Structure formats: structure tokens, C-alpha cells
Amino acid sequence: MKISGKSLDKSNSKIIEELRPISKRVAIKDPTIWGENTQASFRLNWVDLPKNSRELFPQLDALSAWARSRNLDKVILCGMGGSSLAPQVITATYQKMLTIIDSTNPDQIQASIPKKLSDVVIVIGSKSGTTIETISHLKLFEELLKQESLNPIDHIVIVTDSGTALDKSSRGQGYKVVNGDSNVGGRFSALSAFGLVPAALAGVDISIMLDDAEALSKKLAADDSPAVVLAALLFDSTKQIINFSDYQSTIPGLSDWVEQLIAESTGKNQQGRLPVIIEHPDDAISGLSIGFTNGDFDLVVEGTLGEQFILWEWVTALLCYLLKVDPFDQPNVIEAKERTESILSSIKNRTFVQPIPSYEDHEISTYSDNSYKNLTEFLKVDSKYVAIMAYLNKEDDKQFIQLRKLIASKVKKPVTFGWGPRFLHSTGQIHKGGQLNGSFIQITSTPMTTLEIPGQSFDFAELIMAQALGDGMALRECKLPVIRIHLKDRQQAFKKLLKEIESF
How far is residue 483's CA from residue 470's CA, in Å, rounded to a whole number? Predict the structure, then answer.
């Protein structure tokens, strides 16, 4: 593990001295670090995962042998947030194939389903066992397997905490089930069953990653702990924005994983550090910039994947101590879920009322409480950052990522980009729980595919729209500016948006 960069010279020695004994208390899992009545009392086993996760080896070996014996050489993972981001990084780093379904967009889901399922193993990952997206994916794959005259228990592996409704029902049905540690929160679960089961099935030798993580974890409580230095800098060198980039990194997707960890952990009580994923070191508008390989960043954090996982978990825990927030809860994520559930209930009861656009033309319909006619009007709103939330098909609509950099160059402020509903399990917390100074652009469209959810009164298209509308409601209740741009023709609408922004 190596940390370098010009910001190291700005380290605050007083904060470092304050953190050194705190880091030692993290090592012994002291829940009082973050105050009384926090979730730390039952969320600190991530500290021991580099060692304790080795207890999973017999189960992982058995699962891998089972998959090989049945020629299940394609792996699909259905999961959200911590259940998908870590496996994505692990398999990409070790160059193993893993198809991840972390969306409710029916076009994206349909495109992720192979033409035949006979050689596929599907991992269903949900800590709570109630994640609406993942449970919907499970019901879908159960039905698809039956349609091919395949037995779901021969193709589906469940990863969930012990005692959840999903755990009990899956075991009762005969599914292969691997339990996560219930004393580890989702975003701290990279080195738990949630990260390791799909990675092992995809062919990753996870022992190397655990070895690296364990070796570094023994140093993180020392006086020269890199976690202490990083946490002090993230607290003292910026009040809100931290830019992360995978530019030239050998660990693709690490920034996305770190984004969830920091945003969802720190973003509450109007406190927090907002990660902004940038493509290049020069793209940083303000705040601290961090990369994972040599480049013109304020800080460069180099290490193996196992080292990065345990380091950033430790850093986040220390940063939350300095911010005086509970690292392990996510109250504002629940707010958006509740509003989504209310909309879905109205769809079921046939009482849902379609929103009326404030403006529309052939390409776009615009929805806004303030009657903004277009995006350029909205970009004049006074805010400290802009968040783009694209409820689209992240495989076919990748061009929309270009809007992030273009808007940032025009408004001269940080701009984040998140795929909905995935970001709801990541930056969705800090949007509403952190500093209330953002402006929010939702992008929605009508999917081309109709995809039913077995046993539900709504389909995937209705679900993703309910999630967009529910989060929009939660943002507006925080008195935050929100505009929703609905694409009638995605390609033409994209060209229209580009033209509008370029002329801003």
C-alpha cells in the first residue's frame, strides 16, 4: 500500500493525533466510537472479515464444484448496492466474466438474459432478503427457468443474512443458500459472502485478496496507519466534494464501490463527503481529487484490491467519527423506498394519477414544480453541485454519461452521474441526508420491452418509474430543486439535450 500526492503535505497533525487512538479502538470493535445508540453495536464484524471469511472456503469450494459438475459456466448476479458493486470490481480486476443485473429497467434486464439458461447459475444477493429489485429478479428467473423445463434449485444460489424471510423460504424450497454475516452492513460486505460467492463462482481465487486484506488490516491500527492519514485529509482538506477516478487504474470500478461506501456512510445529519466520479484528473472542478495509479491527483492511493477494500472501509469508519455520524445506517434511503411503495400501491389500486408535464415537444416531456421549460433554465438554479440520475438502460444508453462532463464544464460546479435505481442504494442517501445544496436532474424513458414480474400487480417498467417518482418526491420534500426529463425518442432527445447544454 502506497499513498502519495501533493495533499500529503497538508495533513493536519492534530487530527491525526486524535484519530490514532480511535483507529486502535476500531481494531477491537469498540461500538462507542460513534456515540450511543448507533448501529455500530451490531455492524462491526467487517473488521474481522479478512480472516473470518476463510470459514466460507468449504462452501465456496462445494458451490464451484457443483457448478462445474453441471456445466454451469455462465454466472449472473442479481443484487443492488453492496451486493453488486464489490463483485463487479472483483471480477473485472481478475478478468472473469460476471453478468450483473442491478436495474429494474426491463430493456436492460431482457438484454442480460441469455437465450438459453441451461448453462447458467444465477446468484441472488440481498442482505435484508426484502430488496424489491432483487426479489423481483428472483421471481423472474424462477419463471424463466420453469419455461425452459429447468428446475430453479439446480440453477439459483441465494446469498442473504441468516434468519431473513428469503433465507427461510429458500431453504424450505431446497435452494443452495450461503449466509452473510448479519453483523456486517451491506456497503461494508465486500469481503463477505456477498462479494465472495459470485466471485468464486466466476473463477476468482479469493484467497489472494483475503491475504492482502488481512496483511494490511494488521497495520491499520498502528501509529503510521494509512487509514488515519487518509481520513484526516478527507475531513480537513474538503468540506464536501471528493473526486475519484479510475483513470489508468488496474482496478476497474473501484471508484463506484468507494462512492457508495463514503456517500451512504457519511451523508446524514446534513454532513458528509460527496464522491464525484471523474474520467480524468483534469476534470475535477473543486474539492479533493483521488486516483489509484500515478497521475496528477491530489492523492494517489495504490494497492491491491484486497488492500483497497479494507483500507477504504477503515477510512470511512474514521471519517464518520470525525463527522459525528453513524456509519452504518441509511435513514434517507428508506424515505425513497416508502414513497416508491406508496406509488406502487396506487398502481395496484388503480388510483395512480399520471403527472402532467410542465413542457413537452416531440422529443422530450419536462416535469418540474417550477415549470422549467428546458434543461438550460434548470441549470441556472443556485446549487453547489448537480446530480444526474438516469433511469435508463446503462448498456444501450451509455452516451448519456457524456452529459456529466459537459454540464460540469458549463456550470463550473461538480456534477455526479448515477444509473437509477442503482444509485438509490449509494448516493441516494447523501442527496437527502447530507448537505442540502444539490440540484437534481432525473432522466426517464418509456422502455421498449414489456417484462412482467411474476406474482406482482406491477411490471418492471412501472417499478422503475415508481422508483424515479418516489425519489423525486423525497427530494422535493427536502425542498431541493428537481427536474425530470422524460425521453420520448432517446436518440433524438440526446441530441437535443447536447445542443441545449452546448449553447448554455
Answer: 13
